[in-house]
Amino acid sequence: MSESGSAAVALDGVSFRYPGSGAGVHDVTLAIAPGELLACMGPSGCGKTTLLRLVAGFLAPDAGSVALAGVDVTTTPARERACGVVFQSYALFPTMRAWENVAYPLRIRGMEAEERRTRANAMLERVGLSAHADRLPRQLSGGQQQRVALARALVFEPRALLLDEPLSALDAATRLTLRDEIRTLQRDQGIATLLITHDQDEALSLGDRVAVMRDGRLVQVGVPAALYDDPADAFVAGFVGRANLFDATVTGPEMLDTPFGRLVSRPLGRRAGSRVTMLLRPERVGVDGVAGAPFEANALDVDVLRDAFHGASRRLIVRPAGSNDTLDVQTAYRGVVRRVRIAPDALHPLPEAGDAAPSPRAGVSSASASVRPFLRKEIP
Amino acid sequence: MLARWITRGYLAYLALPIVLLVVGSLGSLWLNTLLPTGLTIRWYAEVAADPSFRRAFVSSLVVAAATASGCVLIGLPLAWSVYRSSAPRVRALVRLLTQLPVALPALVLAFGFVLVFSSDTLPWLGSRGLLIAGHLIVCLPYFVHTVLADMRRLGLDTLEDAAESLGAHRGQRFAFVVLPAVRHSVFAGLIVVVALSIGEFQFSNLVAGFLNRTYPIVLLQAFYGATGFACAATVILLAVALAASGLGAFAARGAGPRAAAVPGA
């Protein structure tokens, strides 16, 4: 609780279970600093939306406490919490015009008609919609509706902004524009924000910090680069970006036995003979068009199994000669790929089981002996 | 091609009795011929002048209006609480209770009413209040279903969550969010209720008192008299029913296309 004094949003040991099911969140402790944008991501059903509903006050926790700006609001109803919430489905009132939607929270607060119209229009101007103030929601595009929803959530100067997958219902182009607008607006208003998303790209690019959830628990919280470069476990490594993950045996201070043969790594600080799960990001694999060169450490002749062109880059699935496992490779190289090179410092060991502070049970000791490519996320 | 002819045949089959009713109501004599002879509006004038028909017409309108009001007062909060209830058991129970009258013939309900309300403790059989209560039971499920379906389509729970986060208490949410959002389906539901109530025969025939008989019951008596008179009386009932469904179609069109409501994740 010491931390919650300065935090805009603070969850302390919060648990919630949906009646009649095992789903919910378990023992979540999390703080959002004033002006900070925390992106919370995870697979569907991991409890991230539940977390938002607990902060908003739509759900009451079974255990733990929720505080806003240092004030305990665990038992405060949603309408008194003053959190601006934006929903995936926009949730605009269909019979009210754009400006009336934005003015609604001011009307509830008893503001005079003239004043609230002025304020609503000013807020609509901030989101670039002053020309559409008199339209009904159904006369607006999805992106415009979500802008109105954003204006409505911010107009009453809430204590926190809660965004529940705000971009998921929009088409790809609108999603990118609105993503930048949300960031700008959030920075300008300096409001603490919780963004719920299943889109890793969104989380990494928008979040000051990113929280990864799984099965109702926080697995790791950190700045985006830390999550990407130093994931707490195989789940985070596979969920945040693409990853080659494989089990290896330490054979020397800088030497590993992997499914692809013996590789040189940077100093690992693990004792010889111990098992370790290695992370190799696809873009860290170097490629070459010439195969069968004289011996070279960490260079492997490969067969290309799959080759997908993505414009700025190519994604390849390759199988090193003499191995049954494959590697995921991302490169800008346009030629025929015959050989890959793995720089020693591109091989990153995941923390040993028990090292990962937030969730020891998601440790790597359960990693299978073979390579487990986490291929579920597409590179945009 | 075949489908089109089947459709035409079916439409003709539907329309024929109605056309014959209209023809019959305007013919002065219709005994043993295929079509009546002579043209007259005498039968309409007679129906309009008949005191028992006038009384029944008014009685039907009063009962229908009262049933409609009852549906809004009881059905709207009921639909709202069913929609908002998260407990599966509550939902199942209410679903059963509201669907029972649909499955159960109104006749069974009427027998129940006759048994219970002819007793000395509850001697209300034949009163207009009891008639309205029965109509309410018959009509309520249709109303609740219409409104409930609309609430689900609109994603009303998310709208309410939004309103709540913006500071609205329960009453404000109902007045500013729920009511405006479902107004079209409430109207459409009421049209169905009025049409059902005006045409209801099974229940009313057994439960209505002599002085507050509804139109369909008096109509049955008409068929023991002149054909033209019976036809005219039926056409009047038909016109009221058609007006009701016409209004319903109009209301449904007024609902129009709305913003797609994506169910909350």
Spatial extent as radius of gyration of chain B: 22 Å
Structural class of chain A: alpha+beta
| Unreliable parts of chain B | 256-265
The largest β sheet of chain A comes out as: 6 strands, mixed
How many distinct helices of chain A? 8
Uncertain spans of chain A, ≥5 residues at pLDDT below 50? 355-380
Oligomer state equals heterodimer
Biggest beta sheet attributes of chain B: 2 strands, antiparallel
| Anisotropy-based shape of chain B | globular
Terminal-residue CA separation of chain A: 40 Å
The average pLDDT of chain B is 85
> What's the arrangement of strands in the largest beta sheet of chain B?
1-2
The chain-level structural class of chain B is mainly alpha
**Fraction of helical residues of chain B:** over 70%
- Overall geometry of chain A: elongated
Query: Strand percentage of chain B, roughly?
Result: under 5%
Description of the structure:
The complex is a heterodimer of chains A (380) and B (265). The model of chain A is unreliable at 355-380 (pLDDT under 50). The radius of gyration of chain A is 24 Å and the shape is elongated. With 380 residues, chain A is α+β, with helices and mostly antiparallel strands. In chain A, the strands form four sheets. A six-stranded mixed beta sheet of chain A has the order 6-7-8-3-9-10, sandwiched between helices. Chain A has eight helices and 20 strands. In chain A, a hairpin with a 2-residue loop joins strand 12 and strand 13. The two termini of chain A are 40 Å apart. In chain A, helix 2 packs across helix 3. Chain B has 265 residues and is an all-alpha fold. A two-stranded antiparallel sheet of chain B has the order 1-2. In chain B, a hairpin with a 7-residue loop joins strand 1 (27-29) and strand 2 (37-39). In chain B, helix 1 (2-26) packs across helix 11 (227-255), helix 3 packs antiparallel against helix 10 (215-222) and helix 6 (128-154) crosses helix 8 (170-199). Chain B is globular and about 70 Å long. The A-B interface holds A 19-20, 44, 49, 56-58, 77-85, 87-96, 104-105, 108-109, 137-138, 140, 145, 149, 152-153, 156, 162, 164-165, 168-169 and B 86-88, 154-155, 158-159, 161-169, 172, 176-177, 180-181, 183, 257-259, 261-265.
